[in-house]
Amino acid sequence: MFGLLKQSIIGRAILSGALDFEAVDIRDYSLDKHKKCDDMPYGGGSGMVMTVQPIVSATRAIDPQNRMRKIYLSPRGRVFNNTIAKELAKEDGLLLLCGHYEGVDQRALDICGYEELSIGDYVLTGGELAAMVVIDAVSRFVDGVLGSDASSEEESFSDTLGGLLEYPHYTRPAEFEGHKVPDVLLSGHHAQIKKWRMEKAKKITEKMRGE
Ligand code: ADE
């Protein structure tokens, strides 16, 4: 599943050495003779729970000096956004734990010091897609990942735009099937273009996110 990240911008960043990641199979750390990693929940209920031992062993093997920020992807967590992405990009390393089934034994989270992070108020069948979303969004803030032509400076949620959603973009041709690019963008008047973009950003934010 994680092979997807080796494509495109993230793939290039890995080749250039700006970032690296490794997918680890928790089953490799199970001491059970059948490499079992889940069991029935104490107290009853549906579904299976991931057991404590393989998670704790894998975490300790991956990060023996306990230096990485540990994140368990879960719908129960703090809701991920660009501010959190920027904050996580400053860390030397992230260890992302992907849950399955009904969840993981709480002791694994407590022993290893995992914080919980959700990518939104919906439930996925596993944490892998959520982890990939986090990796992608965080990587954009790691130095050397985005080229100067794809800067994260002036985009939705950026400081430059005052946390607003992004204004609309246009490129050639100046007219398509009668639909024209707004005149101001062709004017070469930078102050007016800036003003127009801020106004559009405010309007779009109000429309999409206004109460
Ligand atoms: N695992 C299942 N659903 C999730 C979500 N919304 N965010 C993060 N991890 C999850």
Provide the descriptors you would attach to this structure in a database record.
3-stranded parallel sheet; 7 helices; 3-stranded mixed sheet; 211 residues; alpha/beta; 34% helix; 8 strands; binds adenine
What is the number of beta strands?
A: 8
Q: Which whole number gives the mean pLDDT?
A: 94
User: How much helix, percentage-wise, in residues?
Assistant: 25-40%
Which residues form runs of ≥5 with pLDDT under 50?
Answer: none
- Rg over CA atoms: 22 Å
Helix segment tally:
7
Q: Quick one: overall form?
A: elongated
Instruction: Quote the beta fraction.
Output: 5-15%
The major beta sheet can be summarized as: 3 strands, mixed
Spatial ordering of strands, largest sheet? 1-2-5
Bound molecules: adenine
- Series of H and E elements: HEEHEHEEHEHEEHH
Main structural class? alpha/beta
Termini gap: 37 Å
Structure description:
The protein is built from 7 helices and 8 strands, in the order H-E-E-H-E-H-E-E-H-E-H-E-E-H-H. The chain has 211 residues and is an alpha/beta fold. The strands form 3 sheets. It has a 3-stranded mixed β-sheet. A hairpin with a 2-residue loop joins strand 7 and strand 8. The model has no long low-confidence stretch (mean pLDDT 94). The chain binds adenine. Adenine binds next to strand 3. The site of adenine (ADE) has 12 residues, from strand 3.
